[in-house]
Design brief:
With 88 residues, this protein is mostly beta strands. The chain has one helix and five strands. A five-stranded antiparallel sheet has the order 4-3-2-1-5. The longest helix is centred in the middle third of the chain and has 6 residues.
Length: 88
Amino acid sequence: MDCENRPVDINIPDPLPDFNSENNIGTWKQLFATNIGKRVKIDISLFDGSIRSVSGDIYIVGNAYVGVSCDGKICIVDIFSVKLATFY
């Protein structure tokens, strides 16, 4: 899967939180924020109990979401539904 074409037409709120603050040390948010641009596969839990995988490059991290970009699209994942992350 080729993920070199990053999306450009998305409005991202500014400024993003500081994930190195004391309240965020050791959280998923800090882990993803320090690895922006790196390849990841994120397994998330859906409401029906099933697990779905999202793969691509970490594009953005917010207080309650992580954005993964691939093939010109961004998939926004609820950070609280993350069960497993594999970095490549």
